[in-house]
Specification:
Layout lengths: L9 H12 L1 H12 L9 H9 L2 H17 L4 H31 L1
């Protein structure tokens, strides 16, 4: 997934999706959010798009895509509340990491 080559914060968001929904699905979800081909492989095009995009907005859009995917799963009525809580907690931490990285780069 090359998460270590992604902007801070986005790396966490992608990694958490991969742990819970599989690496290929996580990468395809990211690629769809970035508007690049969804082949499930992180290559130069995906990495360039990730770095060119607004990281905060990408994290938010990825979170929305993830929640949309989870909400379509059959067990959502049973587990959805906990899943949603976890996804939003990961989003908050990812946004914090992205924000602290931006302020460090601008210093």
């Amino acid at each position: 997934m090359k998460a270590d080559e992604l902007p801070p914060g986005l790396d966490l968001a992608l990694f958490d999706i991969a742990v819970h929904s599989g690496p290929s699905r996580a990468v395809r979800m990211l690629q769809a959010v970035l508007g690049v081909g969804t082949d499930g492989i992180v290559g130069p095009v995906t990495l360039a798009a990730a770095w060119a995009a607004d990281t905060t907005e990408t994290i938010r859009r990825l979170t929305c895509a993830r929640l949309g995917f989870l909400a379509r799963l059959i067990p959502w009525p049973v587990f959805g509340r906990g899943w949603r809580r976890r996804v939003l907690a990961v989003e908050q931490e990812a946004l914090r990491l992205a924000s602290s990285s931006t302020s460090t780069r601008n210093a």
